[in-house]
Design brief:
Length: 101
């Protein structure tokens, strides 16, 4: 497999994730779509690093940082979503208008 195959896979996963973020109303599904987009970025980092310089592990190290940031983001976002669900009874993003007067 060449680098192009990995880039096409990454682009397809990123596009599916972007569609999920833009088309979904449920906050949990939007979080899953964001995770899919971050995984597409990880595939691209690792494939490009393996193609560019196979003896160094720069792509894998950056991917580990992205995974750690994604885990922290997911934990915080799920806590916010659970709090909104307890307060509002729904996780529909169209109904979340807590900042409005």
């Amino acid at each position: 497999m060449t680098l192009l195959h990995f880039q096409l896979l990454s682009a397809a996963l990123f596009a599916i994730g972007m569609y999920g973020v833009l088309a979904r109303k449920n906050a949990v599904l939007i979080l899953l779509a964001i995770e899919l987009m971050l995984n597409a970025v990880n595939i691209n980092f690792i494939a490009y690093a393996a193609y560019r310089d196979p003896e160094r592990f720069l792509g894998q190290i950056i991917a580990l940082f992205v995974i750690a940031i994604a885990a922290a983001e997911l934990g915080l976002a799920l806590a916010i979503i659970l709090r909104l669900y307890r307060h509002r009874g729904s996780v529909n993003v169209d109904e979340i208008d807590l900042m409005k007067w």
